[in-house]
């Protein structure tokens, strides 16, 4: 199966730094999820570190182990995770590549 999401090199570098700085335990992966989506605000994408649970889809992209709940897969296909740093703010940015 092709990876449902992609992680840019900038985002992968930042995720690796977080893994090291926060001392995330061995065996944890990046969990990508979605919450909301019911109102005019739309869905919000979520990132965190977690262990594999039943019903997860696992894969690796840009040397980052990724977990996605199978039931959320439809909402995450063609998602690109990037990292931007500006004068006033810095953080992860989520781009839908298919224009959905």
From TrEMBL:
GO terms for molecular function: 2 iron, 2 sulfur cluster binding. Residues 5-95 form the Core domain. Transmembrane segments: none annotated. It holds the Pfam family Fe-S_biosyn. GO terms for cellular component: cytoplasm. GO terms for biological process: iron-sulfur cluster assembly. This is Iron-sulfur cluster assembly accessory protein. It comes from Flammeovirga yaeyamensis.
